[in-house]
Design brief:
This protein is α/β, with parallel strands linked by helices. It has two domains: 2-39 and 47-122 and 229-432, Alpha-Beta Barrel (TIM Barrel), CATH 3.20.20; 137-221, Recoverin, domain 1 (Orthogonal Bundle). The chain has helices at residues 20-29, 39-42, 50-59, 84-104, 121-142, 156-165, 172-182, 228-251, 265-279, 297-311, 325-335, 345-366, 380-392, 412-420, 434-449, 452-472; strands at residues 6-12, 110-113, 153-155, 189-191, 210-212, 219-221, 254-257, 286-291, 315-320, 371-376, 402-407, 425-431. The strands form three sheets. It has an eight-stranded parallel β-barrel with strand order 1-2-7-8-9-10-11-12, surrounded by eight helices. The two termini are 12 Å apart. Belongs to the proline oxidase family. Pfam families: Pro_dh (PF01619). It comes from Acrobeloides nanus.
């Protein structure tokens, strides 16, 4: 591949070969100890819509029927938690994968990391619910809308006034201590980003998010009654993630944090952005993945780009369409919350292109070296859109602002053409012991069986090329000489 200018993303693709019943049992076994809506949130019943609070709780809760996260998903590998020891082994595998990338690609490749491999997924569920409740609370405090939430902030004086509006008298010393705790950048204001400095404040999971109970006027955690074991497990997960990132940095290998289901994604994105803040001071070392089939995709990108600009770190993005559509829609319908997926294929295409354009705008505003995006798509129209966008904005392929990626063995006519034209292009390579990767590869084979139209096109192109070679007598293709890209 390297002869054609195509680089590699190693994707550790081992899956547990377990039954659906075993997967559902693991989901229930791993449920965190407290399954109640935090009292501090229910106390806001006069300000928050109770139905919305209950819906949020259901969305980010464990449901046995959807415990097997492989169902309806064929293009993403799935990890199931079995023990802390197994998570330690997964972290070791990621480090070995990083070593392989460093050795074989001269530092030009990536390693893909799935955070659900590094800890108990149910803790990510609880963290995602906490983030959702915290944003609702912040929205209530500031009187903002979802559209302007990222720009909203509140001072200590305004906070006291708002609490008074809620009909409570809170201890000013308590408010002062709470305000200092959540004002991470110490600018005298609290905004929605001040909730996000997790990696430096992860010793006690339950104390990460605390809010004022408007009924009692006391500080209460949004994640109450976690056991000491669960707190330790969360701390272990954070440490594994940091250890993997530190090892990657020491070997000069970049990391892509994979996107997962929407009920995990608030926590995963929060952790990915925290990694960006820590490691992207001098370039795009960490990339977070954004799924364009989500209605919230552009808003999610806006939120994270705003933080990256405010704190002056590089915003790294991998933009995909998404791998969990059928499962997400079925879960939303049966559990009872809004479908997070765009209504049509055309709407997803439009969202993808709007996200690309917005990222290009951010590049124009911040300058070279501050923003980058990987266009991870097999859609030729989208690839063409990105190439034309680069021309319009005068973004040279050598600047590595926009690069491309496709799965190994798919859309090769696009990948190799881009590589030979000088664009930065990558192939996702499944990685791992053959017998342990087979469960994932067999599901990928099912996906490929559903893409016969694309296969027919590639077969037609191959047949045309074979006839050209036969007619010209050039049976062996010679790769054109070019500079290393």
């Amino acid at each position: 591949m390297s002869r054609f200018g195509v680089k590699a993303i190693l994707d550790y693709s081992v899956e547990s070969d377990i039954s659906q019943e075993e997967a559902e049992e693991k989901a229930i076994q791993g449920k965190v100890s407290d399954d109640q809506i935090p009292e501090a949130i229910t106390a806001l019943s006069g300000q928050l819509d109770p139905k919305s609070v209950e819906t949020t709780h259901k969305q980010f809760n464990v449901h046995a029927k959807f415990g097997d996260r492989r169902l309806g998903v064929v293009s993403a590998r799935t990890y199931f938690y079995s023990s802390e020891h197994e998570c330690d082994k997964n972290a070791d595998v990621f480090r070995n994968c990083i070593d392989a990338v460093a050795t074989t690609t001269d530092g030009r490749g990536f390693t893909a990391v799935k955070i659900t491999a590094l800890g108990r997924p149910q803790l990510l569920l609880k963290l995602s619910e906490t983030i959702a409740h915290a944003r609702n609370f912040f929205k209530t405090l500031t009187g903002s809308t979802w559209e302007n939430l990222v720009l909203s902030k509140i001072s200590r004086e305004d906070l006291l006034r708002r609490l008074k509006d809620f009909g409570i008298k809170a201890d000013s010393k308590l408010i002062e201590e709470w305000f200092k705790m959540i004002d991470f950048d110490a600018d005298g204001f609290v905004d929605v980003h001040d909730w996000g400095n997790i990696l430096e404040h992860s010793r006690d999971f339950a104390s990460m998010f605390q809010i004022i109970n408007v009924k009692t006027g006391k500080l209460e955690p949004l994640i109450p009654k976690l056991s000491s074991q669960e707190n330790q497990e969360f701390s272990n997960m954070m440490q594994r993630l940091i250890d993997v990132a530190e090892h990657a940095r020491s070997r000069g290998v970049r990391i892509m944090i994979d996107a997962e289901q929407t009920y995990f994604q608030p926590a995963i994105s929060r952790l990915a952005v925290a990694l960006m803040r820590k490691y992207n001071q001098d370039g795009g070392f960490i990339l977070n993945t954004y799924q364009a089939y989500l209605k919230s995709a552009l808003n999610d990108i806006e939120t994270d780009m705003h933080l990256a600009k405010r704190e002056n770190f590089h915003f790294g993005c991998k933009l995909v369409r998404g791998a969990y559509m059928d499962q997400e829609r079925r879960r939303a319908k049966e559990v009872g919350y809004d479908d997070p997926i765009n209504p049509t294929y055309e709407a997803t295409n439009d969202m993808y292109h709007r996200c690309l354009t917005r990222i290009a705008d951010e590049h124009d505003a911040r300058g070279l070296g501050k923003v980058s995006v990987m266009v991870a798509s097999h859609n030729e129209e989208t690839v063409r859109y990105a190439v034309n966008l680069m021309k319009e904005r005068e973004i040279a392929p050598s600047q590595r602002v926009i690069c491309f990626a496709q799965l190994y063995g798919m859309c090769d006519q696009v990948s190799f053409s881009l590589g030979q034209a000088g664009y930065s292009i990558y192939k996702y390579l499944p990685y791992g012991p053959v017998e342990e990767v087979l469960p994932y590869l067999s599901r990928r084979a099912l996906e490929n069986g559903g893409m016969l139209k694309k296969v027919q096109k590639e077969r037609s192109l191959l047949w045309t090329e074979l006839k050209r070679r036969l007619a010209s007598g050039q049976m062996v293709y010679t790769v054109p000489e070019k500079n290393d890209i």
